[in-house]
Amino acid sequence: MSFCLTELHLWSLKSTLHIADRDIGVYQYYDKKDPPVSTTEYGNLEEKQRLAESRDYPWTLKNRRPEKLRDSLKELELLFGSGVLVSLSLSGPQLEKVVIDRSLVGKLISDTISDALLTDSFIILSFLAQNKLCFIQFTKKMDSLDANKRLEKLSALDYKVLSSVRTEGNPLDVHFGTSQPYQVCTVECSISVDQEPMADSCVYECVRNKLHCMSVTRIPLRAKAISCCRNPTEDKLIVGCEDSSVILYEAHRGVTLLAQAELLPSLISCHPSGAILLVGSNQGELQIFDIALSPINIQLLAEDRLPSETLQFNKFFDVSSSLVQMQWIAPPVVAQKPERGEIYDLLFLRFNRGPVGVLLFKLGVLTGGQLGLVDLIFQYIHCDEVNEAISALSSMNWDTLGQQCFVCMSAIVNHLLRQRLTPEREAQLEASLGTFYAPTRPLLDATVLEYRDQDIHYLALDMGELALAEVARRRACDIDVTSVSSGIVTPNLTASYRHAACESHFSSSAVCGPQCLDSHEDSHFGSA
Hints:
- This protein is 20% helix and 29% strand.
- It is of the alpha+beta class and 528 residues long.
- It has helices at residues 45-54, 69-76, 373-382, 386-394, 402-417, 423-437, 445-452, 456-462, 466-481, 496-503, and strands at residues 3-11, 26-27, 85-91, 94-101, 113-118, 122-127, 133-138, 151-154, 170-176, 183-191, 197-207, 210-220, 225-230, 236-241, 245-250, 255-260, 267-270, 276-281, 285-290, 295-300, 310-312, 322-328, 346-352, 356-361.
- The strands form five sheets. Strands 1, 2, 17, 18, 19, 20, 21, 22, 23 and 24 form a ten-stranded mixed β-sheet that branches. Strands 5-6-7-8 form a four-stranded antiparallel β-sheet, with no helix packed on it. Strands 9-10-11-12 form a four-stranded antiparallel β-sheet, with no helix packed on it.
- The protein is globular and about 80 Å long.
- Among the domains are: 61-159, no CATH class; 373-517, no CATH class.
- Keywords: Cell membrane, Cell projection, Cilium, Cilium biogenesis/degradation, Cytoplasm, Cytoskeleton, Membrane, Repeat, WD repeat.
- Its main location: membrane.
- Pfam families: Frtz.
- This is Wdpcp protein.
- Belongs to the WD repeat fritz family.
């Protein structure tokens, strides 16, 4: 069974953490004095220290000037009052530098900050006690937060509200669209006519300084929504409900998926690749789903292979701490290779009355550290989890991810064709090929024309090999009416047999495309 292997790195020097010496997948920092007795219960602390240092994980933090990292971390765990800005620099999952800037202390209109937006040139703050926004403009562009960079202004500049609109439901999420920044996307909690809870996905557009609602998509729920997020391409909306259900709405297929989480989904975060979802609870639990809401087990690095449905963080804290923030950390630009995508393997975690840290995903060298849809489906195939692979493929959009869809579908079909044909395999072949031949919504003509050219029948016609084209067509028709496994005549036999027939004209390891079926005018697959 496939699962995610992780390491938990807590950036803390506190002795209230309960991390045993056998927890080789959990790390914290220690003072130079002897560590707490609770960490040496098995007598393996020295071995764990050698293991950490062999991986360039610092056991004790250096306190050299000017960074004074150990003192800065101690101060960090006592701070976060009014107007304190903190910048954390990382080297992998480890802290490299902590910069604390107090230039805003005592200069804000309120003591309690509820939210902040930090850019290179300005920062905007909102407050719990007052219905106001504070705009702070920096004197020069800031590549990183630095205590030496001072402020130019701290005042209510001449900013005006261009437009406002009253939403029909209670807004759960509001943000600008990533693909169309002039649009405002919201998720609103509403009630249907039958008094059933709903989630409204709304799109607003500012025209002539007036906000207009352009579209509303109503998603039925089983309970009130408490959290939500969108995937990077914004064609999927994930909603967490107070009955622990997770709802996923796919805009391009117009379908709604449902899964029951093992925890209360107070936080939801989508991986930047769009392949997996992380669902967290305030009680310090974490669960992983793929983009088709199939659960994925998770495990911290350990001596034994014991993956579980959820990851429990609270067992490492002597003082109960709730999980209040999850955010994927952007990788450093210098570490990226142009031929590979960005590697997102660090999840930032922040606990209330607790430490901050990261969850490191050990993604391996075979995928180059990637966690994309193709990598996920290939892992499913490797573990013979075909149904999960097909579900993930079904959630992909052929019109926008055509090449990835074709690679994944070919891999699934080739994996199934190498095995004994059973009714279950037959249904799986039909479902995987059906993502192209019987989609929920018709594909674009350009997509169909691009990928049907992989068909041996059509390819032979294009090359002038008329005899080969006719043999492929005739052989596929023969298999369409006779089962190769049982010899029983089946008029509605799955189209996968026709694909296998095309393979017989080449070597046994030949890879055919989905278009092997397009040559059959009497195909029953398209209406399945």
